[in-house]
Amino acid sequence: MAMASSSSLKDIVGELDRDSFVTLLGKIIGESKHVQNNPPELVPREDRVARHVLDVLLPYSTSSGEGPLIVNHVSYVEGRGNIIVEYPGTVPGKILSFVGCHLDVVTANPQDWDFDPFSLSIEGDKLRGRGTTDCLGHVALVTELMRQLGQLKPKLKSTVVAVFIANEENSSVLGVGVDMLVKDGLLNKLKEGPLFWIDTADKQPCIGTGGMIAWKLRATGKLFHSGLPHKAINPLELLMEAFKEIQLRFYRDFPPHPKEQVYGFATPSTMKPTQWSYPGGGINQIPAECTVSGDVRLTPFYDTADVAKKLQEYVDDINANIEKLDVRGPVSKYVLPDENLKGRITISFDESMTSGVACNLDSRGFHVLCKATKEVIGVVKPYSITGTLPLIRELQDEGFDVQTTGYGLMSTYHAKNEYCLFSDMCLGFGVFLNIISQLEDDNN
Question: What does CATH list as the number for 211-349?
Fold first, then answer.
C-alpha cells in the first residue's frame, strides 16, 4: 500500500481512465429506460444500474477478499437498492464523503430526441444519453474514483465514502433512498467530515438552492350564458383578480432578501402560475369553476411553512372581502345579492413542500471545494439557483456539512438530447483527488 501525500495522491491514482469510465457509463445508460422515475406509470428499478456499479467495485472489496473496499448494498424496496462504499483510512474519525449520485433518471420521449436517449452515443467529447448529466454520469465518475482507490490502495489518513442513492427524482416518495439511510443511522459517521453532494452542474460549487411549494387556486362562481354575464359569477375573472392580489401581497411580504446577493441567487423568491384548467363547455358559456396551478420558488432565507400560512391568510381575507376585489367591466361581479350567492376561492398545497439550502460558507468543506475547483478548473465562481435539491436540506438539518457540485451541463439538465462532456468529467475526477489531498494535509 503506497503512502499518499497531498503531492503524491494524483501521481498514484492518475487520471480518469477513459476506457473504463465509458464502458461503465455505456452499461448504465443502457439501463436508463428502466430507471425513469415518474410514478405511477414509471417506477424505477435502480438495482439494474446498481448491479453494474457492484460488478466494478466488488472485485476490490473485502467481501471478495482481494481489496480494501467495504461495499454495502442496502434495499428498503425490492429492486430499488442504495450502495454505500467505504475506502478505510488510518485515522479514526477523519472522513469525507461523496453522496447524492442517484440511480434514477427523469423521463425521456425518444420521438423528441435526435438520438436514442436510452443508449450511450459518443460524438467527440460529448457523451450522449438520458442520465449522462443527471446523474448517471456522476454515478460512473464516483464509481471510477472508488475503483481506482480500491485497486491502487494509496495509504490515506482519511476514510473516503461514496453513497449512491435510489429515488432522487421523486423525493415525495419516502422510504426508498437516502431518507431511510439517514433514519437508520447508516450515514451518521459522515457528519464527522465534509459531505460533497455530487448532483449539480457546470463544474462550480452550487452554494444555494430554492425551496418549492406547489399550489392550486380554485375559484367557484355561477355558470350562465355568456350573453347574460350580469346573471353569472365568472370564476375566470374572479381568479385572475384574486391571483393578482395574492401575488402583490406575496412580493410585499417576501421581498428580495439581503443574503441572496451574498449567495449569488439569479432570482429572488417568486410566485407564478404555470397551468390553467376549467371543466369545459361552450365558448358562449361562463363556467362554474376554474383552477390555476403553479409554484412558489423560495430562497432558503424564508420558511416554506410561513409562506404557506400567509397564502392561506391572503385567500381567507379575499373571501371575507370579496365585494372589494377589483372587477372586470361594467357587469362583472362576484356577488349576487338577490340569490345570496358569492364567488369563492380556495387554495391547496402539494404535500411535498421542500425547503431551500444555503451551504455553510465558513465550513472547511466549502473552502476545500473552492480551492480544489480553483486549482483544477482554473476559476471558482460559486452560484445559487432557485431550482430545488429537496433531499439535501434534510441532511443539513440532521447536522451534515453539505456542499454541492457537479460536472454535467446545466443546459442539458432534464432536457431532451441530454449529454455531458468527457473532459468535464475528467476535471471532476481531478477535483475529487484534490479535495482528498487537501484533507490529508489537515492536522486533525
Answer: 3.30.70.360
| CA distances from residue 140 to 56, 57, 266 in whole angstroms, order as listed | 10, 11, 30
Yes or no: say if 442 and 96 are a contact pair by the CB < 8 Å rule: no
Catalytic one among 86, 104, 202, 237? 104
Task: Indicate the class that CATH gives domain 9-208+356-441.
Answer: alpha beta
Q: What is the pLDDT of residues 233-275, one digit of tens each?
A: 999 999 999 999 999 999 999 999 999 999 999 899 999 999 9
Among candidate residues 213, 237, 360, the one with its CA nearest the CA of residue 289: 237
List the one residue out of 6, 196, 231, 16 whose CA is nearest residue 96: 196
For residue 300, give the DSSP letter.
T
Q: Which helix (H) or strand (E) holds 85?
A: strand 81-87
The dihedral built from the CA positions of residue 257, 263, 267 and 271, taken in this order, carries a sign that is: negative
pLDDT at 5 over 70: no
- Give the residue carrying C-alpha cell 443546459: 411
Domain ranges of the chain: 9-208+356-441, 211-349
Q: What is the mean pLDDT of residues 41-70?
A: 94
Please, what is the average pLDDT of the chain?
94
* Omega within 30 of 0 (cis) for the link into 135: yes
* pLDDT tens, residue by residue, 283-341: 999 999 999 999 999 999 999 999 999 999 999 999 999 999 999 999 999 999 999 99
* Selected catalytic residue, list 46, 86, 168, 260: 168
Task: Name residue 269's amino acid.
Answer: S
| Known catalytic membership, residue 168 | yes
Q: What is the pLDDT of residue 66?
A: 80
Nearest of 246, 131, 234, 201 to residue 406 by alpha carbon: 201
CA dist 115 and 308 (Å) reads 42
DSSP string, 38-84: BTTTB---THHHHHHHHHHHGGGBTTTTS-SBEEEEEESSTT-EEEE
With 0-12 / 13-18 / 19 or more C-beta atoms within 10 angstroms meaning exposed / middle / buried, residue 393 is: buried
- Residues 316/255, Cβ–Cβ less than 8 Å: no
Beta carbons within 8 Å of 225's beta carbon, 6+ residues apart: 231, 232, 284, 285, 286
